[in-house]
Design a protein that fits this description.
The chain contains eleven helices and six strands. By secondary structure, the protein is α/β, with parallel strands linked by helices. It has two domains: 160 residues, Rossmann fold (3-Layer(aba) Sandwich), CATH 3.40.50; 66 residues, no CATH class. It has a six-stranded parallel β-sheet with strand order 3-2-1-4-5-6, sandwiched between helices. Helix 9 links the parallel strand 4 and strand 5. Helix 1 packs across helix 4 and helix 2 runs antiparallel to helix 3. The radius of gyration is 26 Å and the shape is elongated. The protein starts with a strand and ends in a 48-residue tail after the last strand.
Length: 266
């Protein structure tokens, strides 16, 4: 298998949600948007943003400022506010040092996604970027993965990995492209897939995770160092605490305890 790994951007490498809140607060204050306009904008951009969203904002609320100006200001604010998740830059640097080819495959407009990569320093650590706005196609479409491979100077035929937080776009799309996958679970997704089992015992049993039954490697598992981007894998979980044997009742295979004779007997 080729040493090729693709990463999703928003929610995997970069913390979009925190940056979005800060950027929209600055944007709405600088233009003195009404509370209704700010609420509309936050709801419209919660998952993704395009220039057409600001055209609709301008039309709905009769704004004088142009949609193109608002979009560019939003792009600049996002690039300044976005940050990487902990350990991302170090992990990617270790992959590059180990001769891995690194690509980013992301759903979003090309200008804002590349602005985020430049603002976080990720642009210097990747070999190619494929954004859905480049071809007007989105993950899980295989063609976006093929574009990413081409821009990295490699072929999907040799295989590789896809790392992302979206089970449909990242994991499903990676599998369609013939890639092995690593699912980075967000806390909300982890809660939805958690079984009602004792937490201490479930945490250390990898086969309990439902994604592994579908051929997906969850974030909590450690891939093999020879064929996976092991530099990206998190530390192994701590060993489970030893449990004390129960003292109530007789144990299986143990001889029964003799009962003491009652007073006055024998």
């Amino acid at each position: 298998m080729a040493r090729l790994v693709f990463f999703d951007l928003d929610g995997t490498l970069a913390d979009r949600q925190a940056a979005l809140s800060d950027a929209l607060t600055c944007l709405c204050r600088s233009h003195a948007f009404s509370p209704d306009a700010e609420q509309w904008l936050r709801a419209a951009l919660v998952d993704r943003a395009t220039a057409s969203d600001f055209a609709r904002l301008r039309k709905c609320f009769g704004l004088e400022v142009s949609a193109a100006y608002l979009w560019q200001e939003y792009v600049d604010l996002m690039a300044a506010a976005v940050t990487c998740r902990p350990g991302v830059l170090e992990g990617l640097a270790r992959l590059r040092a180990a001769a891995w080819t690194i690509g980013v495959i992301t759903n979003g407009a090309g200008d804002i996604q590349r602005a985020k990569l430049a603002g976080t320093g990720l642009a210097d650590l990747v070999d190619g970027v494929a954004a859905s706005g480049d071809l007007e196609i989105r993950k899980p479409d295989r063609r976006l993965f093929e574009l990413g491979a081409t821009r990295c100077g490699v072929s999907l035929a040799a295989g590789g990995w896809m790392v992302g937080d979206n089970p449909t776009g990242d994991i499903g799309g990676g599998q369609r492209a013939g890639l092995r996958t690593i699912w980075v679970r967000r806390p909300t997704l982890a809660r939805r897939t958690r079984r009602p089992a004792p937490r201490r015992r479930r945490r250390h049993r990898r086969h309990h995770h439902p994604a592994q039954r579908d051929g997906v490697t969850p974030w909590t598992s450690r891939p093999s160092a020879s064929s996976t981007p092991a530099a990206w894998a998190p530390p192994s979980p701590p060993a489970p605490r030893p449990t004390r044997p129960r003292s109530c009742g007789a144990r299986t295979g143990a001889a029964p305890r003799p009962r003491s004779a009652p007073p006055g007997s024998g």
